[in-house]
Specification:
The protein is built from six helices and no strands. Helix 2 (23-40) packs across helix 5 and helix 4 packs antiparallel against helix 5 (80-100). It is globular, with a radius of gyration of 16 Å. The chain is an all-alpha fold.
Amino acid sequence: KVSTPSEIAFDLEESINTNGDSGPYLQYAYARCKSVMRKAEDTVSPDPVTGEMNAEERTVARRIAQFPDVITDAATRFAPNVLCTYLFQLAQEFNVLYAKHEIIGHPLRLQLTAATAQVLQNGLYLLGIETLERM
């Protein structure tokens, strides 16, 4: 979360915090997505998604769509903090969607959950951080 030319003051407590801007927070968001998908396995509908998105769905969908550009920007500038900030924002926005709306039984939200998990997994992989299916 700190740009490369900046000095870093390492704080162990902050680095393992599951409620803040940290690797464990991102791992927990990924594990939450996977948990929802496991619970929804029997309820996934093959029907196409229709209707308008609510504000939280739009926010998550837009953030997911930014992933390729964020990767390009982070790589071009040699700035892994750009990717970290993006993943943190995605995790926060997904958690808002999760808190405000039922996911299971809603095909669009399940697709957004699966896409969020995939983007978090890909982003964490690029940062050298393993994902956990359960926490």
